[in-house]
Write a structure and sequence with these properties.
29% strand, 5 helices, Rossmann fold, alpha/beta, disordered C terminus, six-stranded mixed sheet, binds adenosine-5'-triphosphate
Length: 214
């Protein structure tokens, strides 16, 4: 399994945000994007997820059978700044919608109740999503990743609005995904507490450098 980005460039409006950006991730590996506000982290994640068209370059995913997919969004979960849930539907209705919409790929997935328990919120899936606190909403947005398997997780500020126990819990769920051979690409302003991840420091306006997470 392999996620490959080669020579990517992306533009927002008139500005070239980055160019010549390449990385490769094998099963179990994670890449964390860091950098100041506006440096292009969300832009890169959206390009990889297929939500934004790149100016140049390619993104591809090769599965465990050696088949290459150009539409990485189809084999990915994308957790953006917004939670992608309807406020007026219950948590269970929202997650059921996503389960049906996403369909099942071969790989580990759990029931809605199990996913709620995994994010520490069992027993409240009957509530409208809009009734929940910001942290509870973020936890259920993350539960979406557990109910339908996708090998690649693309996460934009996944721990925004979370308390300390939520931070730890998300780190454990991400690590479990990696242990199962999953690939993670995440943007963050704070360390996610993940083991052995690579870091890509985004600098914006076509200057990006890479290093190793300290
Ligand atoms: N729709 C848009 N049209 C024009 N410019 C945009 C658009 N969206 C983002 N930008 C610009 O692209 C640049 C990169 O934005 P991006 O959201 O990728 O940054 P980021 O590193 O994720 O920031 P943050 O840490 O604040 O989330 C910024 O200068 C931003 O103003």
């Amino acid at each position: 399994m392999h996620l490959e980005a080669a020579n990517l460039a992306a533009r927002r409006g008139e500005d070239l945000i980055f160019e010549g950006l390449s990385f490769g991730l094998e099963a179990g590996q994670a890449l964390v994007l860091t950098g100041k506000n506006g440096s292009g982290k969300s832009t890169l994640l959206r390009v990889v997820a297929g939500l934004l068209r790149q100016e140049r370059g390619t993104v591809s995913f090769t599965d465990s059978h050696g088949d290459t997919h150009k539409r990485v969004g189809e084999i990915s979960h994308y957790l953006g700044h917004r939670n992608a849930m309807k406020s007026e539907l219950t948590v269970a209705e929202n997650l059921e919608f996503w389960r049906r919409f996403l369909g099942q790929m071969h790989g580990p997935s759990v029931s809605i109740d199990e996913a709620a328990a995994a994010v520490g919120l069992e027993g409240i899936t009957h509530l409208p999503f809009g009734y929940l606190s910001a942290g509870q909403q973020r936890r259920f947005a993350f539960a979406k990743l557990l109910i339908a398997y996708r090998p690649v997780w693309i996460l934009d500020e996944p721990t925004a609005a979370l308390d300390t126990s939520g931070d730890r819990l998300f780190a454990e769920l991400i690590e479990a995904h990696r242990r199962n051979g999953g690939i993670v690409l995440a943007a963050t302003h704070q360390p996610l507490g993940l083991e052995g991840v690579q870091e890509l420091r985004m600098t914006g306006f076509a200057h990006a450098g890479s290093g190793v997470w300290a």
